[in-house]
Specification:
The complex is a heterotrimer of chains A (550), B (226) and C (150). Chain A has 550 residues and is of the alpha/beta class. Chain A folds into four domains: 24-129, Glutaredoxin (3-Layer(aba) Sandwich), CATH 3.40.30; 156-180 and 190-358, Rossmann fold, CATH 3.40.50; 368-451, Ubiquitin-like (UB roll) (Roll), CATH 3.10.20; 467-543, NADH-ubiquinone oxidoreductase 51kDa subunit, iron-sulphur binding domain (de novo design (two linked rop proteins), Up-down Bundle), CATH 1.20.1440.230. Chain A has 23 helices and 15 strands. In chain A, the strands form four sheets. Chain A has a five-stranded mixed sheet, sandwiched between helices. In chain A, α7 packs across α14 (340-352), α11 (230-244) crosses α14 and α18 (456-470) runs antiparallel to α19 (476-493). Chain B folds into three domains: 1-80, Ubiquitin-like (UB roll); 83-125, no CATH class; 133-195. Chain B is an alpha+beta fold and 226 residues long. In chain B, the strands form two sheets. In chain B, strands 2-1-5-3-4 form a five-stranded mixed sheet, with helices on both faces. In chain B, strands 6-7 form a two-stranded antiparallel ribbon. Chain B starts with 5 loop residues before the first strand and ends in a 31-residue tail after the last helix. Chain C has two domains: 3-59, Arc Repressor Mutant, subunit A; 71-147, Glutaredoxin, CATH 3.40.30.10. A four-stranded mixed sheet of chain C has the order 2-1-3-4, covered by helices on one side. Classes of the chains: A alpha/beta (550), B alpha+beta (226), C alpha+beta (150). At the A-C interface, α2, β11, β15 and α18 of A face α2, α4 and α5 of C. The structure holds flavin mononucleotide, iron/sulfur cluster (2 copies) and FE2/S2 (inorganic) cluster (3 copies).
Chain lengths: 550, 226, 150
């Protein structure tokens, strides 16, 4: 593939790709995302390739990233028609191919409502998908992440073309600011203002970074995006670099996901080959390079300053907050860090405009949010809904409620630095500020259902144990404070709680919260705080009841 | 910004002149105002680990809590080195550290000052408080790197590197004296006993003067767990 | 793995202290653990104090300072797997292998580790052997899975 020299060449090339494709030709998309892969979808894909191969050119088989409905993997989607097959085994393959060629549906493999038995064939009828707005993840079944042409075929890099040819960097920045895009990595901080700080920093060398670390337990949407549609994030990053005036970018992600690594590496190489990375991108005069970096297995390296230390090659010890990484980041150069999902939102904001974007979502939280739905839920998977959607929709309409017919006790958001709220707050809307006020900040978007059997002291103990092992250990309030909270919680779960333990915990939460160096320590007491707010009697009775309690 | 830019700030009600680039701790010390520290050492880069030097800072109507050994002075900020909240922070931090080193003289003094209860939290077997003075001193001042940090989170500890310690430590021992808990010496001796018993390199004695006796704090046993 | 490969990796980064993590990652990847003498070589070549190499190597969970068994058995203890019964899987693996978290058996067959979520929560609880995921695991199925690894 020769380098694309201009926007016009890219559009011509896109037209050629589309002209070569016959929309009527059946295409079978097999998910090889993290969950489906764990159910050996690779064998399913191999069977499709082998069987399909026998037919010459009649059908196309595509392996893709996560479709969303991970609970029912291995997932297969057949186009045209977006026919969804669930829990597909290699032995089902000949039947699916035969039916597809005849324009029929394999009834026994489509969705069946567990209560009514009603069937749903097409994606937009399946309850799990029906209530979603899949602006970001929706392309996943259409894209083989190893093929940049698939991304171009769904309109990829058109936003980059628009930014480079029709807009000044200031206009791009302005659009993102107007869109009120808020960071999806946990803080909900407005991306536009952060970009502007880095842009305005006097130092000429600037960096942009994708935070794809996703170290939070039971959060898996960022890797679903990065593995399934790496070019979307890259496109957002290049646009951001253009707006900010950065010459170099870093993608920081997990070392323990071989497929993710393969897809991102390949995406970077292809983008370079096509002239979307490197010198004089599409003849615009804008130069930008991007490097891939890996974590080495510790949660705290997702924190912004620790992440940057890690890219420099140092141990990921956080730095104090008032050294702003947007001004003094990697090698002390201005560095703008955003979450995978934040970057993924950028292309559509540029293509469709801030006005369109702000028409989706709640008053102060715009756009959609990816949610990793798991725990004691019937339908676990990656979900995308407009901000402001009531939790009830997520939990019941999409999630199908609690497993094994049990009753919902609590909803937990934000992993080890988040919080739990009781089931009776289920009508609260999904909103950055609203959820923070309730004590269960959305965080990166990990949502866990906990059923009636859940022991809330044990949940707090479990989360604390995670943090004790994942912190850096540099500062006393975090290292010692969390260790002591863990001791106390462990004792209480064992029925060995003592009078005064709750006061000890409260003092530790308070001091760890103000005195810790980074947000890991500062927010480590948050789950416990939410428990004291909503589930305190459970703690009290465990302590006063001793081992007989609960 | 020139190096000599003068900055006026308020610490505990006093107007203090400092120069840009100074930390709040340095400004306070210059004015004779005491702020407790554990991981700070004037010869070393600021570390900001123990958090004992936290103070209350009011700037543009906002109150925040910052570690004075790292926080740079800024124009017109109002610093309070003690307040109910600051004292509470220090009390709990000292209580946490006393779970390791209940008999360290510095901690005992601080416990008295802030009303800390040495038995408030569960005792831990290691009496190192991971202030990092030994590690940083050996790295920054001695440039020997005979002792380093290992592990992360609650398991973080210091560890002598036998390959280096064998040749360097007995001739130096300087970190033994700056260690607030005497753990540095204990850790060295343990490393020696396990990794190179009887093989330490001792300083070559000169004929003129006897070897100066070094101040070495006797190793304190960890008090029985409550 | 050959000493040559390790030396090759070290050579690539000679004189580049900033590449310490990269060098260690590559060696870990090739050799599955970081022998002490190799870390000394890395320290010398990259001009980094050995103490710092130790700090990094012991800081991250991805590095191993002891040799690993032929097969790495991993039970996810992430939040969802935990809620969906990871503790029972752990107990069963521990019973079958006689190993505790982080240990390797005497004949170097298995290294057993528990660890953080790998993002396949929807099929939790899960067991992972040499990177292959076994989703929707039950204690009863574990023996058959482990049998496949000699
Ligand atoms: C301990 C810790 C872990 C974090 N891990 C992540 C992570 O895995 N991914 C992420 O995007 N942000 C993570 N963050 C938040 C980042 O520090 C940072 O705020 C974020 O990447 C900024 O991107 P955003 O503004 O687009 O959200 C973490 C923060 C802390 C304190
Ligand atoms: S708060 Fe915890 S993770 Fe953050 S610097 Fe302190 S010890 Fe390290
Ligand atoms: S040995 Fe002493 S100086 Fe070194 S970290 Fe521990 S307490 Fe601090
Ligand atoms: S991994 Fe296949 S649907 Fe999520
Ligand atoms: S003296 Fe400031 S943090 Fe230790
Ligand atoms: S919790 Fe086990 S894979 Fe996520």
């Amino acid at each position: 593939m020769p380098k694309l020299q201009s926007a016009a060449e890219l559009e011509k090339y896109r037209a050629e790709i589309l002209a070569r494709r016959d929309p009527a030709k059946p295409c079978i998309a097999v998910c090889v995302g993290a969950a489906c892969d764990g159910m050996d979808s690779a064998a399913v894909a191999a069977a499709f390739v082998a069987e399909g191969g026998k037919l010459g050119d009649k059908i196309e088989v595509r392996t893709t990233g996560c479709h969303g409905y991970c609970e029912k993997g291995p997932n297969v989607v057949v186009t045209p028609g977006d026919i969804c097959y669930f829990e597909v085994q290699p032995t089902d393959v000949p039947e699916i191919i035969a039916a597809t060629l005849k324009g029929e549906v394999v009834e026994r493999l489509v969705y069946k409502d567990p209560n009514t038995g009603a069937k749903a064939v097409h994606m937009n009828e399946v309850p799990f998908y029906k209530h979603q707005t899949r602006l970001l993840i929706g392309d996943n079944p259409k894209i083989d992440p190893m093929r940049i042409d698939d991304y171009l075929a769904v309109g990829g890099y058109a936003a980059l073309v628009k930014a480079l040819t029709e807009m000044t960097p200031e206009q791009v920045l302005d659009e993102v600011k107007k869109a009120n895009l808020r960071g999806r990595g946990g803080g909900g901080f407005p991306a536009g203002s952060k970009w502007e700080t880095t842009r305005n920093a006097p130092e000429k060398t600037k960096y942009v970074i994708v935070n794809g670390h996703e170290g939070e337990s039971a959060a898996f949407m960022d890797r679903a995006m990065l593995t399934g549609n790496p070019h979307k994030i890259l496109e957002g990053l290049i646009i951001g670099a253009y707006a900010i005036g950065a010459q170099k970018g870093f993608m920081y992600t997990r070392h323990d996901m071989p497929l993710l690594e393969k897809h991102v590496r390949n995406a970077l190489a292809q983008a370079k080959e096509y002239g979307l990375l490197g010198q004089n991108i599409l003849g615009s005069g804008f130069d930008f390079e991007c490097e891939l970096h890996f974590d080495v297995g510790i949660f705290v390296s997702g924190e912004s300053s620790a992440l940057m230390r890690s890219i420099e090659g140092n141990a990921p010890e956080p730095r104090p907050k008032y050294i702003r990484t947007s001004v003094n980041g990697i090698w002390d150069k201005p560095s703008n860090l955003n979450n995978v999902e934040t970057w993924a939102n950028v292309p559509q904001i540029i293509s469709k405009g801030a006005e369109w974007f702000t028409s989706i979502g709640s008053e102060k939280s715009k756009g959609t949010k990816l949610i990793s739905l798991s725990g004691n839920v019937v339908n676990s998977g990656v979900v995308e809904v407009p901000m402001g959607t009531p939790l009830r929709t997520l939990v019941f309409d999409i999630g199908g409620g609690v497993r094994d017919g049990k009753i919902l006790k609590a909803i937990h958001f934000g992993g080890a630095m988040g919080g739990s709220i009781p089931a009776d707050l289920i009508d609260s809307p999904l909103d950055f500020d609203g959820m923070s006020k309730l004590g269960a900040p959305i965080g990166a978007g990990g949502l866990l259902l906990m059923d009636e059997d859940t022991d809330m002291v044990e949940v707090a103990r479990y989360l604390m144990d995670f943090l004790v092992n994942e912190s850096c250990g540099k500062c006393v309030p975090c290292r010692e404070g969390m260790q002591q909270m863990l001791h106390l919680l462990t004792n209480i779960t064992r029925g060995e709680g003592k009078p005064g333990d709750l006061e000890r915990l409260e003092d530790l939460i308070e001091v760890t919260g103000v005195a810790s160096l980074c947000a890991l320590g500062k927010t480590s007491g948050d789950p416990l705080k939410s428990m004291f707010r909503y589930f305190k009697p459970e703690y009290e009775s465990r302590i006063s009841g001793g081992s007989a309690g609960k | 910004m020139s190096e000599m830019t003068e900055i006026v700030l308020t610490i505990d009600g006093q107007e203090i002149k400092a120069t840009a680039g100074m930390t709040v701790l340095q400004a306070a010390q210059k004015a004779g105002i005491y702020i407790p520290t554990l991981c700070h050492h004037e010869k070393l880069e600021a570390f900001g680990g123990c958090r004992l030097c936290m103070v209350e800072v009011e700037a543009r109507g906002w109150t925040s809590y910052v570690v004075s050994c790292v926080y740079p002075v800024a124009k017109d900020i109002v610093v309070r080195t003690r307040s109910a909240k600051v004292d509470k922070i220090r009390k709990v931090l000292v209580e946490e550290l006393m779970a390791h080193a209940p008999d360290a003289p510095e901690l005992i003094r601080l416990a008295e000052e802030y009303g800390a209860d040495r038995n408030r939290f569960e005792r831990d077997a290691s009496f190192c408080i991971v202030c990092g003075l030994c590690v940083r001193y050996c790295n920054e001042v001695k440039q020997k790197n005979a002792v380093g940090f290992i592990d992360n989170g609650a398991r973080r500890e210091i560890s002598f590197i036998p390959e280096v310690a064998k040749d360097e430590c007995w001739d130096c021992q300087e970190c033994f004296t700056i260690c607030p808990t005497s753990y540095a010496q204990a850790a060295y001796l343990l490393t020696e006993a396990l990794a190179f018993p009887g093989q330490r390199k001792v300083p070559i004695k000169t004929t003129q003067a006897p070897e100066p006796t070094r101040r070495v704090i006797p190793i304190m046993p960890v008090a029985a767990t409550t | 793995m050959s000493e040559q490969t390790i030396d090759g990796i070290i050579e690539k980064y000679r004189g580049q202290p900033n590449s310490l993590i990269h060098a260690l990652v590559e060696i870990q990847h090739e050799n599955h653990w970081l022998p002490r003498d190799v870390m000394h070589k890395v320290a010398a070549a990259l001009q980094v104090p050995f103490a710092q190499v130790m700090q990094i190597a012991s800081f991250y969970k991805a590095f191993s300072l002891t040799p690993k068994g032929r097969h790495e058995v991993h039970v996810c203890t992430g939040m969802t797997c935990h809620l969906r019964g990871a503790a029972k899987l752990r107990a069963k693996v521990e019973e079958l292998t006689g190993l505790k978290d982080g240990e390797t058996d005497a004949d170097s067959r298995f290294t057993y580790e528990t660890g953080a979520c790998l993002g396949s929560c929807s099929i939790g609880p899960e067991l992972i052997v040499d990177g292959k995921h076994y989703g929707r695991m039950t204690p009863e199925k574990i023996e058959d899975v482990l049998k496949q690894y000699e």
